[in-house]
Structure formats: C-alpha cells, structure tokens
Design goal:
Helix content: 55-70%
CATH class: Mainly Alpha
Largest sheet: none
CATH topology: Heme Oxygenase, Chain A
Number of domains: 1
Oligomer: single chain
Number of helices: 12
Distance between the termini: 59 Å
Structural class: mainly alpha
Length: 260
C-alpha cells in the first residue's frame, strides 16, 4: 500500500525543468515530421518538379494561417509584455517596413517553381487533409488554454535542423531551386531558433503542475500530428498517385509518382 501511494505521488509530482525539457525533446525526436518519408524524398532530390510544386502549394496554406493563429492567440493574452513578444511572430510572417516577411518570401519559392501566384493565393488546389489539419490547428489555439496555445509552437525546437537539411539538399539536388527560392528557409533558421527558445522557457516557467506539464506535452503532440498529416497526404496523393478531386495536379503527374 505504501509503495502504491509512493508511485501515485511520483506520477503527480511536477517534473524538474531538465526532466520536462527532455520529455519535450523526446516527443520531437519521435514525432516530428522530419521522420516522414516524403521529406526524405524531397531533400534527397527524389521528387520531380510537380511533386515539389504540390508540397510548396500545400505548405503555403499552413504559412498563411500562422499569422491568423497568432492573432487569435494574441486576442487572449492579457499580459502586454507577452503580447509585445508574440506580435513579432505576426510581423515576421506578414512583413514590416523594409522587410517583406515570410509570406512574401514563400511567393519567391512558388514563383521560382513556375506556379501562378493568383492560383497559389486562392488555395483552391490544396489537399483536403491540408485544409482540415491546418484549420484544426487554428481552432486548437482558439479553444485550448493559453498555455497550450503558446506551447503548441514548441515544434520550432526542431525546425532549424529540418530547414538546414532542406536548404542543402534542395540546392544540391534540383536544378530548378536556387538561393532566391530558398530565401524563406534561410531566414527562418535564426527566427525559429529565437522563437523556440522563448516558448521553451515559457513552458518551463508557466507549467507549474504535473497536469500542466502533461497538457504542454499533448499540445506538442497535437502540433506534430498536424504536420505529419500534411506529409502523409502529400505522399498518398503525389507519390502513390491518389490525388483527390479538385486538388492540384501537376503537368508531369505521370512522369514519376512511385518511388524508385
């Protein structure tokens, strides 16, 4: 009985800061979408141009919703200091005076891939799974606690690594990719590092109880699910060849849509 009570107590006690951070990093190691097969194909030059176009188009929907998600979160923040920190994220994507912002840099990617900008902006060609998963992320931030909404961005802990791999791999392996088309990712390496450091410190400082720490872990898991679903949908549609009605279908759709 005493041992049972001790075990229950240990399970409800808050993790130390180091234990909590290690738990978050283990979640990312296991569940972050750099483990997805589609990303391995993308970075190693195994995709054709149409498949890369499909990835850029669908990821665009995620990009344009980041500021929407962050605006929704800011509407719930009562602390002016936190709002001042968080508004930087919106400006990083939407731009400032003399700084075009992340969304405009994303257009450099889609322009460089010879995609019509009006078509990209319309988001008409994105996959249903992309729309549903990204919309679910926005709803999550609106409906969950502020702690969960903020810390769902903890995936940024793992973003610099995948950005660096993407920059090197795509520049080396695709003749239709250049420094200009990779501008978004080059900028995000440093931005994501700074943003991740802030959110990790916020999580450690504000998740006081074991339940709050578990909530943060679940928020991170949810966000990794969002990103993973997007990659699975791309693989199913543009590697296996099952493009749903109304979704973008590249000109070279029949060239190479199975793995070698």
């Amino acid at each position: 009985m005493k041992n049972t009570a001790l075990k229950i107590n240990q399970e409800t006690l808050p993790l130390s800061a180091d234990e909590f951070e290690n738990r978050l990093r283990e979640i990312g190691k296991e569940r972050y979408h750099d483990n997805c097969r589609f990303h391995h194909l993308l970075h190693s030059g195994k995709l054709n141009k149409g498949q890369v176009q499909a990835w850029a188009l669908n990821r665009y929907y995620y990009q344009i919703n980041i500021s929407i998600k962050d605006s929704a979160l800011m509407s719930r923040i009562k602390d002016p200091e936190l709002r001042r920190v968080w508004i930087k994220r919106i400006l990083d994507h939407d731009g400032r005076k003399d700084d075009e912002g992340g969304i405009e840099r994303w257009y450099k990617l889609t322009d460089g891939l010879d995609m019509d900008r009006d078509y990209v902006k319309s988001t008409k060609g994105i996959l249903p799974a992309t729309r549903f998963s990204v919309d679910a992320y926005v709803s999550f931030v609106k409906e969950k606690s502020l702690l969960e909404g903020v810390t769902s961005s903890l995936t940024e802990l793992f973003a610099p690594k995948i950005h660096k791999e993407r920059i090197v791999g795509m520049l080396e392996n695709y003749d239709f990719i250049n420094d200009q088309t990779m501008a978004y990712f080059k900028k995000r390496v440093d931005q994501a590092t700074d943003d991740a450091d802030f959110v990790l410190n916020y999580a450690i400082k504000n998740a006081h109880t074991r339940q709050e720490q578990e909530d943060v872990c679940e928020a991170l898991k949810f966000k990794t699910d969002v990103l993973w679903v997007m990659q699975d949908a791309l693989y199913h549609s543009y590697i296996n060849g099952h493009v749903p009605p109304g979704a973008f279908k590249p000109e070279d759709f029949n060239d190479r849509y199975t793995e070698d």
